[in-house]
Write a structure and sequence with these properties.
two-stranded antiparallel sheet; alpha+beta; binds 3,4-dihydroxyphenylalanine; 2 domains; 7-stranded mixed β-sheet; single chain; 11 helices
């Protein structure tokens, strides 16, 4: 048995030393040191030895195991290093290859349009105001000359939270809030961009959308100021040769009221698909602030006048970018969003 063990040691160390690859080394580990390896096989015969010899042979077996394991570890280290060196020699890295570019995001089309609108109006001396999206019935309707039983409420099918609290259906309540906070100071000259909510949902309506409100209250503000301001806005937004057209309309909070159209920037007014062959595109509602509205928010309609307007941001974005389904703006598909 002793001899057998010594033979395993001799043969094992020679073979381990000669191993040419890590795989071969692993095979040898199994062959000599594995659970069913040669060393274990020999030790199975221990039972037939004299009791006094067993510890001696056992110790020898342990020594042999240790020495083979050392051989194995040394060779393993050597072969690993050799493999690494070989890879380093073979592997050619092209350091001139351009790096992979980092993908930057970009602003959402609505953000771009909003920034443009804000830029144009702040350039004309307006400041940016805001108000709550969850609004009191008082500001959303009452203070805008829309009493409880007014039919204009039906046009804005609304999300109520309680009888007196709702998601604002337009940005117009900011008019009343700002005037109330500023009175008697003049001028009141603000725009109020923000989210609004209505129970609408189709290719051109979303239950949440954005509006920009405008309000200018001062001494001697006339309809001509409204028209001039809007013409200037439209030309900066849609092109310097645009015209505007005002059509009589009705809003409870303005008197007189007007719907504002811009001459079609697609066909220049000849008639095309974008303007539905009319040459004009409706872009906002406006008017002279109703005396009741001024009065309710603390200004004397005998002394001051004002104009107001309100526009839908999605509508302007769709017109300007030629987007035909509003829902694209809210689906967050990068293939769509990265085009702007
Ligand atoms: N608030 C109106 C709406 O949501 C839009 C509007 C029309 C606002 C006329 C105004 C205005 O300030 O003068 O339909």
């Amino acid at each position: 048995m002793r001899e057998e063990l010594l033979k395993i040691q001799e043969q094992g160390s020679v073979e381990l030393n000669n191993a040419q690859s890590l795989e071969e080394l692993n095979q040898l580990r199994i062959k000599y040191l594995g659970k069913k390896g040669l060393l274990t096989q020999v030790l199975r015969g221990m039972g037939s030895l004299e009791a006094s010899e067993r510890p001696i042979v056992g110790q020898l077996a342990n020594e042999i195991r240790d020495s083979l394991e050392q051989c194995l570890a040394a060779k393993n280290k050597y072969l690993q290093e050799k493999a690494l060196l070989l890879r380093l020699e073979e592997e050619v890295i092209d350091v001139t290859l351009p790096g992979r570019p980092i993908k930057f995001g970009n602003k959402h089309p609505l953000t771009l349009i909003l920034e443009e609108i804000k830029g144009i109006f702040t350039g004309m001396g307006f400041t940016v105001a805001d108000g709550p999206e969850v609004e009191l019935d008082y500001y959303n309707f009452e203070a805008l000359n829309i009493p409880k039983d007014h039919p204009a409420r039906d046009m804005q099918d609304s999300f109520y939270i309680t009888d007196e609290i709702l998601l604002r259906t337009h940005t117009s309540p900011v008019q009343a809030r700002v005037m109330q906070a500023m009175t008697p100071e003049l001028p009141v000259k603000i725009i109020a961009p923000g989210k609004v909510f209505r129970r609408d949902d189709d290719a051109t309506h979303s239950p949440m959308f954005h509006q920009v409100e405008g309000l200018l209250v001062d001494n001697k503000i006339t309809f001509a100021d409204l028209k001039g301001t809007l013409l200037s806005f439209v030309r900066q937004m849609f092109g310097s040769d645009r015209q505007i057209r005002l059509r009589p309309s009705y809003f409870p909070f303005t008197e007189p009221s007007a719907e504002v159209d811009v001459s079609c920037f697609n066909c220049g007014g000849q008639g095309c698909r974008v303007c539905k062959d009319t040459g004009w595109i409706e872009i906002l509602g406006s008017g002279m602030v109703h005396p009741n509205v001024l009065q309710m928010s603390g200004y004397n309609p005998e002394q001051v006048t004002g104009f107001a307007f309100g526009m839908g941001v999605e509508r302007i974005a769709m017109l300007k970018y030629g987007i035909d389904d509003l829902r694209l703006l809210f689906e967050n598909d990068v293939r769509f969003l990265s085009q702007f």
